[in-house]
Amino acid sequence: MKSDSNGLIREYNSKLLIVGQLIDMFVIGFTLWAVLDIRTVAWADEHTWWLLISIFSFYLFASFMELYKENRSLPLRQEIRKIITAWGCSLTILAIMAQFSHVISPLNEENFLLWAIAVPIELLSWHIIRNRTVRIARKMGRNTRKVAIVGATRLGGELLDVFSQEDWMGLDFMGFFDDRDPSRDNVKQVVSGKINDLIKQAKTGEVDIIYITLALKAEDRIKLILAELADTTASVYYVPDLFVFDLLRSNINYIKGIPVFSVYDTPFYGVDGAAKRAFDIIVGSFILLLIAIPMLFIAIAVKLTSPGKVLFKQRRYGFRGEEITVWKFRSMSVTEDGDKVQQAQKNDPRVTKLGAFLRRTSLDELPQFINVLQGRMSIVGPRPHAVAHNEIYRGQIQGYMLRHKVKPGITGLAQISGFRGETDTLDKMEGRIKYDLQYIRNWSLLSDFKIVFFTVFKGFAGDKVY
Questions:
Q1: Whether 288 and 426 share a structural domain
Q2: Is residue 262 part of a domain?
Q3: Is residue 160 within 8 Å of 154, Cβ to Cβ?
Q4: What is the CATH number for 183?
Q5: Residue where a domain stops, chosen among 92, 108, 139
Q6: Percentage of the chain exceeding pLDDT 90
Q7: 172 falls within a domain
């Protein structure tokens, strides 16, 4: 972060990051030109369309997977995976558009295959050369900077771990500086000197960067330290210990230049929200086509084997805690939806013979794909609970209602992690909520694909489902 001339704070945006993105785009275009030149194929209008769409889609998918995230060095294995995945998704978009567009005609199969293979090789080669060059230069002492940390805190230790792991940053650590007694419980690191010692070194130009990791409550001390450091040329950063809060999808926004940190937020705004909805519509429609006939047979079986309606509609909490109506195939002889709803138990007499099979295999949940297309639910997300259960657990489990920062799902991280079925103890429900919130914190489109994949193999059936 850098201070703006008006005293507010603006986001730091690396020009080198933009240069790296432009070079990736150039590599894609140059490789296409080279392939056509080698194959003695003249450049045509359709090649321009292929190039523009491939560059745009690659950048889009690479951004989704945070390939271009600021100040982050990816392990080589992750970088390879992200580049190949982004390029594979880009090729898929190209192939689909070539089938349905008259403007874009497909390349010759041999030319396309050669280009499809050459691009990730060229991209990976360029990324590896760039990273190795930077690392070698840093290790040789080129463009290194001396850095110190004010505050021998746990957060300071985590910051030091990052410096140690990411040697490409070229930071030469000088030590922790703190005025507190090293024997105190809140002093977590080995102290190299007092804060005044660091200020003296900063004034003589011996330190380039200073990170302040003191607690938020030490506001007066921080102001005094900053006043002293204003008489130096050192770059000074304050690292707030936001992890004292139980953050949910934290990020930083700006209101007229004023930084605003989110503590509890949903990941599904803007482009991410549109991507999540597109995933639900496309995948949900495809699944409904596959299960339409099985659903018809199940509906007939439910009607013939027990009296009552085919579908059971129950009130649940949805996005933002709003009440929604969730559909299921009726699996019980009763349709409870009042202030008290008893969970199904082993050998529950309310469960019909067919209903036991449907519940055990999750086939009773199939109508919820219609709820997905209605926009009430998502394919992946925290499982919706009955309104009566929500009112019970929200007062017993801290952060319980945060699971409603997203739409409820047909399957979720908790379900593939062993928390599917009856939650007859508070510990089981706490475990389910833990995974629900973990899903929200770490959501990505790739995580949704993974959860759907694992659900197919281990999420449909279970011995805890009654």
A1: yes
A2: no
A3: no
A4: 3.40.50.720
A5: 139
A6: 23
A7: yes
pLDDT at 421 > cutoff 70: no
Contact 324, 315 (CB under 8 A): yes
Q: Which residues contact 384 (CB under 8 A, 6 or more apart)?
A: 316, 317, 318, 324, 326, 377, 408
Are the C-beta atoms of 134 and 107 separated by less than 8 Å?
Answer: no
Tell me the C-alpha distance between 290 and 280, whole Å.
15
**In this predicted structure, what is the pLDDT of residue 300?**
94
Same domain, 235 and 332: no
- Which two tokens mark 325? 């109506």
Residue 274 in any domain: the answer is: yes
**Predicted local confidence at residue 432, as pLDDT:** 92
Mean predicted confidence (pLDDT) in 43-66? 82
Task: Report the C-alpha gap between 114 and 366 in whole angstroms.
Answer: 43
Shared-domain flag, residues 69 and 149? no
CA dist 380 and 452 (Å) reads 7
Residues 6 or more apart whose CB falls under 8 angstroms from that of 36 comprise 42, 43, 47, 111
Separation of alpha carbons 36 and 30, rounded Å: 10
In-domain check, residue 250: no
Q: Is the pLDDT of residue 9 over 70?
A: no
CA distance 148 to 138: 18
Rg for the chain, CA atoms, rounded: 28
Distance CA 138, CA 238 (A): 25
101 and 153 share one domain: no
Pairing of strands 191-193, 252-255: unpaired
Number of domains in the chain: 3
pLDDT band at 234 (very low <50, low <70, confident <90, very high): confident
Q: What is the rounded distance in angstroms from the CA atom of residue 103 to the CA atom of residue 372?
A: 34
Residue 436: which of 384, 389, 391 has the closest Cα?
A: 384
Q: How far apart are CA 240 and CA 244, in angstroms?
A: 10
Query: Distance between CA atoms of 184 and 182, rounded to whole angstroms?
Result: 6
Whether the Cβ atoms of residue 138 and residue 169 lie closer than 8 Å to each other: yes
Same domain (yes/no): 153, 129: no
Write out the two tokens for 80: 């390879």
Contacts by residues 32-40 (CB-CB < 8 Å, ≥ 24 positions apart): 32/115, 32/119, 34/118, 35/111, 35/114, 35/115, 35/118, 36/111, 39/108, 39/110, 39/111, 39/114
What average pLDDT does range 212-239 have in this prediction? 88
How far is residue 459's CA from residue 362's CA, in Å, rounded to a whole number?
A: 9
Show the domain range for 352: 270-458
